Amino acid sequence: GAGKTTVFGALQDAIVRSGDPVVIMRPSVAAMEDSDSKGALLRTSDLYIAIAYALDKKARVPANAPKRSQFVRELLEKSTLQEHRHLLIIEEAHATPTVTLNQLKRLNEELCLGRQPMLGVLLMGHPELEKKLTRHDVRESMQRTSIVRLGPLDAHLNAYLQHRAKAA
Fold first, then answer.
1. Closest of 11, 33, 145, 132 to residue 92, by C-alpha
2. What pTM did the predictor assign?
3. Is there a contact between 155 and 8 (Cβ–Cβ < 8 Å)?
4. What is the per-residue pLDDT across 97-109, written as a single tens digit (0 to 9) for each?
């Protein structure tokens, strides 16, 4: 594949080794597609639920959108005041609907404690994600996005395969 799962595993390992108090939130993307005719859309409510359950496994997330938003905000504030940092990771982000990409921008603006953002967002996807982010209808999200491309292994392929064989 493109290496998303490998990079995610390395990121998790690095966070654990650093000892930094980072809460990772991963909404399920098992059936996600960018239209409901192909699969399941990743909606803002799914993001709120993933955030809430990452912060409180027994959370009773309100069904009402404004109450759900306030509930998640309060959970994030409490966790931030306990000096935790929060990272929302969306794998297969190339299949994220554009409406959800725009909601991520709004979430990021809304979920601040003073001027401090309480939530970082990491989108991991195929090159199609970058193409999607250049569309006019997601320009505000793109303006707040840093893109990092994972290049091919090329000359390092042999060393990587030896490392994987040794690990296995």
1. 33
2. 0.78
3. no
4. 888 888 888 888 8
